[in-house]
């Protein structure tokens, strides 16, 4: 299958439309993602999720509007992302899924407003994107919520009093550390130092050594997956015994696998997504994804899937026009049951979601930290109660 062509799976939907006598209208969606380059790890997962959603919808006789999609590779370059968005609009896309990284999304916004068509981001999270365009929506929560959640967890749940922040000089990382530091300090924590480094820095040992030398209770890493992984390995090699905190940029199975056992015990924030969920629609997604791609989906694949599903819901039953898509997102998306949780947009295009803190276990699984802590508390109470009963029996 050539991803540069309109997705051939749409033929199923078109055939169904002809056979049932429905209007043979199409919903053309552009998908502008980093399928190569530094951010490929996110772009490929998002693209997989989008493809699965299109396949399922076009095979569903109950869905009225056949979807065709065309994929564009940004090469993980923000300027190229803007050019590819302009190309997608020129090719007739009614709406576009893109802006995978915050840097790409920021560069795409002028094109969005010039085209007056929707850009829906599955994963950009920089706070500066909030309300930046009347045509920009995102289903990933702003760093305000994610970094604030980590600050609260560190100060009140993990017993962190002092912290060092090591952050890459790019929009996503700056957004995270810019929220985390004041939020942590407002909870009586102390940020000993913020250490910034340029993108594509390969030798991070000196930065890590500086952080370790300050002897903080925790070190917070704000970067993309490769940078986070390299710093985790360097911290372990340096013998750092404090807590390592980071972002959802590290929440991919391939990133964690590359770091291996050194990733165990690392804390990160992400929206709720569990491959072992009891919800039927999540089970369907996980099983279908694993059957199609031979692996479990990660949080980015899930957001790609939800992005396409939300667009489809917004346009279903409406005319396939840009203004109708925007009206649908504003009026019809109300607690939409996504696989990443309930989806609803505020008046600035931000999604109303609340990230949680996860910990990477020894078997390299992501586990909700609050739920794990609750299970441990219940286990302790159970053992205490059992001991109390035994002591009472001995006393009698």
Task: Summarize the structure in words.
The protein is built from 13 helices and 14 strands. It is an alpha/beta fold. The strands form 3 sheets. It has a 7-stranded mixed sheet, sandwiched between helices. A 5-stranded parallel sheet has the order 2-1-3-4-5, sandwiched between helices.
List the helices and strands and how they pair.
Layout: H1 10-20, E1 27-33, H2 40-58, E2 67-73, H3 78-90, E3 95-98, H4 102-115, E4 118-121, E5 136-138, H5 143-157, E6 162-168, H6 171-186, E7 190-197, H7 205-213, E8 218-222, H8 225-237, E9 243-246, H9 253-259, E10 267-270, H10 280-293, H11 299-315, H12 322-331, E11 336-338, E12 341-343, E13 356-360, E14 366-368, H13 369-395
Parallel strand pairs: 1-2, 1-3, 3-4, 4-5, 6-7, 6-8, 8-9, 9-10
Antiparallel strand pairs: 10-13, 11-12, 13-14
How does the overall form come out from the CA principal axes?
Answer: globular
Average pLDDT score: 89
Share of helix among residues? 40-55%
Largest sheet: 7 strands, mixed
Report the total helices.
13
Structural class, by secondary structure, is: alpha/beta
- Taking all Cα atoms into account, the compactness measure Rg is 23 Å
**H/E element sequence:** HEHEHEHEEHEHEHEHEHEHHHEEEEH
Q: How many strand elements?
A: 14
Low-confidence stretches: 8-24
Indicate the proportion of strand residues: 15-25%
Trace the largest sheet across and list its strands. 7-6-8-9-10-13-14
What's the N-to-C terminus distance?
76 Å
